[in-house]
Amino acid sequence: MATPESLHDCPAPAKLNLFLHVVGRRDDGYHLLQSVFQLVSLSDMLHFDLRDDERIVRVTDVPGVPQEDDLIIRAARRLKETATARGLSVPGVDIRIDKCIPMGGGLGGGSSDAATTLMALNALWKLELPRTELMALGATLGADVPFFLFGQNAFVEGIGEQLTPVETPDGWFVVVHPCVSVPTPAIFRAAELTRDTKVVRIADFSASPLGFGRNDLQAVAAHEFPAVADALRWLSRYGEARMTGSGACVFCRFGSEPEADTVLQALPPSWRGWLVKSLSAHPLLLSS
């Protein structure tokens, strides 16, 4: 619900990498990627209340994430700095988060939270910045933030900054988190990582989207983190299982909600799991 001084129940959806190819490496060390990012219904929920002063405060404790390091706080401050540079005065804000997306799972939760913060405060502070400008701000916070501001499923290239809209099949997914944290930099530094996968075209994916490609990071993560390999083996009993991002979450597509729910009910108790549906667009954009 919304009032002039608050915006509550603002969703920050997760994403899946339907495939992820590493096609090269730049001289500065950044890897060149190709991927399709799929929005799904698993979501954090953010709530914003204006303050009487200028402070930006996260009122929810997030274990292991100090306020100063939180992308939510950094996004709010970056937007406030942009407003101030244009001679606009904006009030402070209290930000509360209902955290559902696991951290370090390859689902883009932190980046999505930052994107939702930019969208919500752009509206709450009545700044009326165009989405392209919000995407440019988001790029200074993290490589995946612009995608969530882009607001639709995308064929992703470069270091993640080149986004092209793409149609993806509707479907239900079981997402499994084997309760291990996989550090992204370590996966990209691994000597055995494949960095020369053949470049594909968006038409290649669109012609045969189900099961297209692979995740080049998966073999490295599964070797270094046996829990990821265990989750892949277990989920592969029910269909084609694949890791998202640099891990640790793995997923499998199913043709119906009941089929996916049956698999979820069999999940080993030591892991976390969710039944999620594909989304065609960011929920905040659909409601605006």
Give the CA-based shape: globular
Q: Briefly, what CATH class of the largest domain?
A: Alpha Beta
Say what the CATH topology of the largest domain is.
Ribosomal Protein S5, domain 2
Largest sheet: 7 strands, mixed
Strand content: 25-35%
- Rg: 19 Å
Short description:
By secondary structure, the chain is of the alpha+beta class.
Keywords:
288 residues; alpha+beta; Ribosomal Protein S5, domain 2; Alpha-Beta Plaits; 2 domains; 7-stranded mixed β-sheet; 10 helices; 11 strands; 28% strand
Walk me through the topology:
Blueprint: E1 2-3, E2 6-25, E3 31-50, E4 56-58, H1 71-85, E5 93-98, H2 109-124, H3 131-139, H4 145-150, E6 154-158, E7 162-165, E8 172-177, H5 184-189, H6 202-207, H7 218-224, H8 226-235, E9 241-243, E10 250-254, H9 257-265, E11 272-277, H10 283-287
Parallel strand pairs: 4-5
Antiparallel strand pairs: 1-2, 2-3, 3-5, 3-6, 6-7, 8-10, 8-11, 9-10
